[in-house]
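Closing statement on the beta-L-arabinofuranose sub-project.
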Amino acid sequence: MKTKFSLVLFIALFLATVGYAQNPIIQTYYTADPAPMVYDGTVYLYTSHDEDSTVNNFFTMYDWRCYSSTDMVNWTDHGAVASLKSFAWLDKTNGAWAPQCIERNGKFYLYVPIHGEGVSVLVADSPTGPFTDPLGKRLIETDHIWQDIDPTVYVDDDGQAYLYWGNPKLWYVKLNEDMISYDHSIGQNGVVSTEMNTEAFGSHNGRDGKPGPSYTEGPWFYKRNNLYYMVYAAAGIPEYIAYSTSISPEGPWSYKGFVMERAPHLAFTNHSGIIDFKGNSYFFYHSQELSGGEGFKRSTCVEQFEYNPNGTIPVIKPTKEGVTTSVENLNPFKRVEAETIAWSEGLKTKSDEKVGVYVSNIDNNDFIKIRSVDLGKGAKKFAANVATAKSGSIEIRIDEKDGELLGVLSVTGTGGEQNWKTLSTKIKEAKGVHDVYLVFKGEDKDLFNFDWWQLK
Ligand code: FUB
């Protein structure tokens, strides 16, 4: 009884602050193990995916999802871009753990661990897939495949690519230029074992509080201003995030301290990804806040931070506010995918062959918030592509969920749930930059599906 009351109180407090929240950045699915990639002016965020129903009280993870943003506050859902089914040779139905994607020579390489099956790679011509298996087998061959998880990849300035991974040890290979094979002349059959000592990986407390280096899993490897960084989950369980640096991509590593400490709303795991984007630095991680504290239902969060002048990383606090300033405004006079979301409640996304990803599971009072929308001198019309066999409406509001009402689009039977039609309505003109709220109304469940919207 007490537990139930605490959970209700927890959710009430959480919802009370939602107006200001940006974290977690995805609310339609549980998304863990964030791996951001900057490509062509856009951040592509690859995540693992904790299913809504946890099986056998363990990680329940079947696919990898992708989201993108050009402003760091609105995220467009590209759906599940790869899954365990991408590997014809695999007979496992669970274990799609922490991925990372990188671009090289116009191809996109998605490195994925499959729990108990080691590290594999998928390739695509676009950052959002379709990803296919170029090898027909796993990429990394070792005699410790249960420990071969959490790949992280970086191509150095001289063209040499490195793939690091591992729990509780850290291994690496030097990838060949094709990115799907590696140099077998080094280490053990090409696999080099990193020296795991406390000078390299800290001695605050080791794995599970035992003495020893604190490195546990989830490495994130990159170079910045000629310094190589290894950021990782440490001292599980629960994990904090720590980091080490080196002047060489192959170490030796030197322990530098905490990046994110443990906190009650963080999960028993944590997993980082770091990027520089449009002049700012961002730290991605996951929390268990959205699920009300379930460690197998985690969600991706982001914080903006600044490196210290000497290149060290400050201790970063997990916040609800997350990224407070968008790096650019959103243009609503171009088609905006409905699944471009800063915050939403009650919604899911699905995809079909006609329109790709769309917003679904729309019930009365569910809503989408889109941040930093530049309404310019004001718009006269709101148009939306929708599909439904029922009826409902979309209220177009600004600044708050119950903020100024600009107009209401009535969404009536378009002839079926996949029968898409563009409907429009006149709206009141509002000028300048605002957060836009699309609030859904109607008496039924699953009122309609929503593909895109645009102002005119
Ligand atoms: O998400 C499954 C596993 O949990 C990841 O591979 C680890 O990094 C930890 O986050």
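The chain has two domains: 21-305, 336-455. With this model delivered, the sub-project is considered complete and its resources will be redirected to Aim 3.
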